[in-house]
Amino acid sequence: MHSEDFVVNEYSFGSALSACAGLTDLNMGVQIHALISKSRYLLDVYMGSALVDMYSKCGVVACAQRAFDEMVIRNIVSWNSLITCYEQNGPAGKALEIFVRMMDNGVEPDEVTLASVVSACASLSAIREGLQIHARVIKRDKFRNDLVLGNALVDMYAKCKRVSEARLVFDRMPVRDVVSETSMVSGYARAASVKAARLMFSKMMERNVVSWNALIAGYTQNGENEEAVRLFLLLKRESVWPTHYTFGNILNACANLADLKLGRQAHTHILKHGFWFQSGEESDIFVGNSLIDMYMKCGMVEDGCLVFKQMVEKDIVSWNAMIVGYAKNGYGTDAFEIFRKMLLYGEKPDHVTMIGVLSACSHAGLVEEGRRFFHSMRAEYGLEPLKDHFTCMIDLLGRAGCLDEANDLIQTMPMQPDAVVWGSLLAACKVHGNIKLGMYVAEKLMEIDPLNSGRYVLLSNMYAELGRWKDVVKVRKQMRQQGVVKQPGCSWIEIQSRVHVFMVKDKRHPRRKDIHLVLKILTEQMKRAGYVPEADDDEICEEESDSEPVFQCEMEPQADSAVA
C-alpha cells in the first residue's frame, strides 16, 4: 500500500502493527514504526497501543516501554498492553508496578487488566498481592463470571499451593474449560496430591497436551517416575502430539530411574518429532539440557558431552548439567575444565554451579581447591553460601578426615544445620573410626530426626566395628523404645524389559533357594579372597536368630518400557 502511494492514516498503521504482532514479525514492525516516526502522526491511543502490543508479542520489552512513554494520551488498552508485556516477558514484578501506577493515574482496571495482574502474581508466587486483587474482583460483581479472569485466579492459587482456595474459585465458576481443569491438575500435583490430580484429569471431557504435561510433571516431581512413563505411553496411544515440555519431563523420569534404555528411546522419539536441540531456540535448549542430565545420571558421560557439543545455544542450566554430571561421575578435572570454559564464555556461575564444583572437589579429594572455591563464592561471584554448599564442604572435609574442621564449620553455619548436614559428618566419623565425635553427632541427629532408622544403624555399626556389642544392643533397645523401624534395603536391575526388585528379608521370590545358593558360593569366594562382610545389626539381634538368611529378593514385572 505504502509503495504504491496510497494514503496511509493512523488506522492503517494500527492495523499493520496488529498484523505484525499476530505474526511476531519484528522486522516489519520496526519498519512500520520508522514510517510512523517520519509521518505527521503523533502516537495516539490507537497506534501507540498497537505499537506496544507488537513489541510485547515480539518480546522486545524495552521498545514496548519506550513506545508507551512516547504516547501523548493513554487509555485502558494502552495500560493493559504494557502490563501484559511485563507479565508475559518479565520481570513480572514490573507488571504490578505498572498496575499501581495506572491506578494512581485514575484509570479503572477492566477484566483484562486484572487477569494479567493475577497471572503476574502467579509467576511471582505473590499470594498476598493475589488475595488483594481477588478482593477487588469480588467487589466488582460484573467480573465474577469472566472465564479468563476465573482461570487466572485458579492458576494463581494453584501455583501458590493454595489448592483449597483454587478449588473454591473453580467450583464457583459458572463456566469452565480445559484451562480451568488443567490448572487444578497442576495445583494438586504441586501440592503432592497426585491421586487428586489424576482424578481431576480422568474427569476432564476435553484434554490438550498441556493437561497431559501437567500430570506427567506431577508424577515426576513427586517421585512417581514409573507412573510418569506409563502416562507418556498412554499419551502416545491417544495420538497426542508431545511438546518440548513433555520430553523434558519424561527425560527427567528416565534420569531419576537411571533407565538408559528408556532414555535413549525418548531421545530417538525427540528427533522423530523434530525437536532438534541444535536450533538454538529456547524450547530446544530445554530439551538439550534434559538430555544432558539424563545421560549424566545414567553414567553415560560421553553421550552427555556429545549433546552439549551439538547445542548451538547454551544457558546456565546447560553448563550446570555438565559440571554436576562430571562431578557425580567422578570426573573432577573435567568438571573444573568446563567451569573454566563457562567463565571464559562470560556465563556467571549461580548457586547450582558452585554445588557442582564443590561436589567435584569432594569426589576428587581436593581439599585446598574446595576451600578456595567455597570462599570465592562471596568474594568473586557475589553468592551467599546456602545449606547445600555447607553440606558439600562438610562432605569434602569428612572424606579427607578433617572431622574437627567439618564440625567447626557446622557450628559457624548461618542457618540451622539439618539431618543431612549432621548425617554427612556421622558417615565420615564411621569411615575414620572417630567414635567420640560420632556419638556427639548421633545425639544431634536423634534430636532432629528421632524416627530415622539410618542414624541408629550407622551408630550401631560403628560400635560393632569396635566390638562394643553392649553398646550395639543399647542402640537397638533405644530404637525399639522410640518405635523406630529399620526400612529394608532395596535394589533392582532391568533385564529384557523386566525390572527385578531385590529386598532384604523378602521371602516371596519363587527361586529364592537358588539365589541363596549362589549367594552362599559368592560369600565363600569373597572370604577366601580376604574380604570379611560387615556385620549388620540385624544379624546380632537376638530376636532374629532363627530367621532366614539376610539377603532375600522379589521380582516384579513392570509396565512395558517401550517409548519409540
Automatic annotation (TrEMBL):
Region (Disordered): 543-564
An example Gene Ontology molecular-function term: RNA binding
InterPro entries the UniProt entry points to: E_motif, PPR_At4g14850-like_plant, PPR_rpt, TPR-like_helical_dom_sf
PPR repeat coordinates: 75-109, 146-180, 208-242, 284-314, 315-349, 452-486
Superkingdom, taxonomy of origin: Eukaryota
Gene3D superfamilies given in the database record: Tetratricopeptide repeat domain (1.25.40.10)
Swiss-Prot/TrEMBL keywords: Repeat
Annotated Pfam families: E_motif, PPR, PPR_2
Biological processes per GO annotation: RNA modification
PANTHER family, per the entry: PENTATRICOPEPTIDE REPEAT-CONTAINING PROTEIN (PTHR47926)
Protein name according to UniProt: Pentatricopeptide repeat-containing protein
Species, as recorded: Sphenostylis stenocarpa
